[in-house]
Amino acid sequence: MVVTAVALAVMSVLLADPIPRWLSKARWTWHDPVGGLVLWQSIGLAAGLSLCGCFLVLGFGNLGPSLPEALIAFWRDTADGVPFRGIGAADAACLLIAAGLALRLFWTLLRSVRRVLAVRRTQRDALDVLATPWPNDAGVLVLDHPSAVAYCLPGNKSRLVISSGATERLSRDQLNAVLTHERAHLSHRHDLVVLPFVAWGAALPFSVGVRRAQANVALLVEMMADDAAVQAGQADALIAALNRMRPASVRNLGGVDQDIASEVRRHRLQNPSRGTTRLRSASLAASALLLLVPTLVIVVPALI
Question: Residue ranges per domain, the chain?
């Protein structure tokens, strides 16, 4: 199964850097942020599957012509009391690497979740002390700060926050548009979309492709929330609010420039996209293909 392992290794390298670099320069994702996010997620999943699958195939290569047959042989040998029959030192090393990679990815995700939850808990406790309820909306807290900002803390005990500067600089329509944007983050749990990319970046901190993936995902999430305001008929009010607000950095990933991101969002709101059905279909098909190819290569190596 050496050919299978090589194919998986090539796919993992392409998905870890060159493909994210290319996709980060694409502008069609701005017209369909949902499709773009699905594609980014499939790239991350396929990269992890290809990398772990490469070493898994090498480790079980002597037990059968395909991974399913090798696994069946391995379980039979285990039942016979000789689980490592046919597995040499090099094979065992590959299996350890595959297990180590899978554990690292899982542990990094778990650690990222714990870290995010701890930060949110600290911020939530601070807000409960420093912020006051907004009289115009019982579900909103006002933080005394001169800059015009708004953000949300997602979770079971979510918080929706605006600054006193925002209440002074923005009209009621503009505030409503901003709150619609932030409520979209909460209701659609955009934090869960972003979190795997936080973990991916922690697992591969030196990858330029991963950093670009993080930056693009952060921007696409903001665009998805913008679309909620557009659907509510608040596009003009949101544009006006963006012109007066200081970009929030709570969802800043991968070093994305918040001023540039705000400019991109304003341009997109002023020039709405039409006819994104084909884009969505193409991005979903590409996402499915990205996940299907490494799976088929692992399960049916004769295909390559």
Answer: 1-87+274-304, 131-272
